[in-house]
Amino acid sequence: MKVGGTPHPFQAVAQPVSRTFRPKAEAAAVGTDARTQFRAIYDAWFDDVSTPAHESRHDILERALAASWKAAVARFGDNPAKWDLLQLQSITFDHPLGSLPIIGSRLSRGPYPLGGSSTTVDAAFAAWRGEGQNERLDVIEGPSMRLLQDAADPAATLSILPGGQSGHPFDRHYDDQLPLYLAGKLRPVSGPDQSREPLVLKPAQR
User: Fold this and answer.
1) Which residues lie closer than 8 Å to 110 by C-beta, 6 or more apart?
2) Do residues 162 and 140 touch, judged by C-beta distance below 8 A?
3) CA atoms of 60 and 54, how far apart (whole Å)
4) What is the signed CA dihedral for 149, 153, 154, 157, rounded to 10 degrees?
5) N or C, which end of the chain has less CB nearby within 10 Å?
6) How many C-beta neighbours within 10 Å does residue 159 have?
């Protein structure tokens, strides 16, 4: 879509909205009661046009909350204290050749239950998949490495990878770090032996 000489999708929406709201804002500046006009336009955005009634924001939010509660209770029970994100959210480590017949299933890893969200320290960005009782959250983005490092004590560095050091699916180091990664734990990083004399590089003598 191209509006007002710009192909940017944000502008394609922002310009028509601006043309709608700007007269109301200008009217408010000269004393006209624009609040009522703003409310009418605002509520129109929430109206469910598939019904003869005119729904407000409050109506739509109330309906969405009721539907969400009903679906959650049907799936997880009526005690929210027992609801567990791990029942709904998981991660699969897909290999580029994981869709191949016969051997593909041996290349990928998962799915594994995984917590976290976009607002937690243990970040996990998930997308909804499926419908109804089969609806689930698939983690599509997360930390490619967790690292804990003390600049005053490099030998105490800890880290973990979402899989392993090797990229070969049949190597023992392909997924040996995965259990720790899923558990949110770290492992020591092998580094230079600090007890030895420092290595000094000197230019060759001619």
Assistant:
1) 90, 91, 92, 93
2) no
3) 10
4) -40
5) C
6) 14
**Farthest-apart Cα atoms in the chain, separation:** 94
Question: Would you kindly state where each structural domain of the chain is located, as residue ranges?
Answer: 1-45, 47-83, 85-142, 143-193
The backbone torsions φ and ψ at residue 34, rounded to the nearest 5 degrees and listed phi first, read -85, -15
Contacts of 180 (CB under 8 A, 6+ apart): 160, 186, 187
Q: Provide CB contacts within 8 A for 133, sequence distance 6+.
A: 74, 75
Taking Cα atoms as reference points, which of 106, 84, 100, 189 lies closest to residue 145?
189
- Overall pTM surpassing 0.70 (yes/no): no
pLDDT in tens, 181-202: 999 999 998 766 655 667 788 8
- H or E segment to which residue 160 belongs: strand 158-160
Tens of pLDDT, residues 82-119:
999 999 999 999 998 888 888 888 899 999 999 999 89
- CA geometry: angle at 32 spanning 30 and 36, to 5°? 145
* Secondary structure (3-state) at 28: helix
